[in-house]
Backbone:
């Protein structure tokens, strides 16, 4: 039972390159989220999904796209990376209730040069 | 727009001391408030979740209180240990059906042996 896993753990990109971050969960949770964490700014929600085939924008969606083709996977894409997207990215999952917490992956550290 | 503030940003205490971390939020219309712990280079781990109808939650040496009307929460750590050194994040779950969390910027705690 791995919980929430993220691939890759670390990546260096050049400005303009593209990449996809993968979040996988084995907890059968409906909700999945992508956050970014920057120094002094806490975690900010990028996109989220309330079920397979659905996605929605969060607080800072610009420059990112997401897909949830399978319930257990949530992909975050950067089509043309910019230095401002240098950050640590966290995926989280939760069930359909306000009485439970979110479960976080270990994070992906991304550096855009 | 909901805003979450944590004070202090950093705290250093000697081992064995009792301490209080503070969290404030601007919109009292919340479902719950959660405290997380984050170790360096790691993901977030849930510590305590307080429903909006509750006043406090306890887990071992941790006690979290919630005063929704004043928009405040405190995390009390008793008899601190060096292993408690980490960043502590407060987050509120607001209205709507998406279970979205709004995070504070965290308090970096160092417990000196």
Residues:
């Amino acid at each position: 039972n791995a919980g929430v896993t993220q691939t890759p753990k670390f990546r260096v990109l050049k400005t303009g390159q593209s990449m996809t971050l993968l979040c996988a969960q084995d907890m059968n949770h409906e909700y999945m989220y992508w956050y970014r964490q920057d120094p002094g700014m806490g975690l900010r929600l990028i996109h989220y999904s309330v079920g397979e085939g659905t996605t929605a924008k969060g607080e800072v969606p610009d420059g990112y796209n997401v897909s949830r083709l399978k319930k257990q996977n949530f992909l975050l894409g950067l089509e043309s990376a910019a230095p401002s997207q240098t950050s640590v990215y966290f995926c989280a999952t939760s069930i359909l209730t306000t009485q439970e917490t979110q479960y976080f992956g270990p994070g992906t550290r991304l550096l855009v040069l | 727009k909901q805003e979450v503030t944590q004070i202090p940003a950093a705290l250093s205490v000697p081992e064995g001391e009792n301490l209080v971390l503070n969290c404030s939020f601007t919109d009292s219309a919340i479902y719950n408030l959660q405290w997380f712990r984050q170790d360096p280079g790691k993901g977030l781990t849930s510590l305590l979740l307080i429903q909006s109808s509750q006043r406090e939650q306890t887990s071992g040496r941790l006690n979290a209180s919630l005063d929704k009307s004043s928009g405040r929460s405190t995390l009390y750590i008793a008899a601190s240990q060096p292993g408690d050194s980490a960043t502590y994040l407060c987050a509120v779950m607001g209205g709507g059906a998406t279970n979205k969390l709004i995070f504070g910027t965290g308090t970096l705690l160092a417990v000196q042996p």
Notes: The mean pLDDT of chain A is 94.
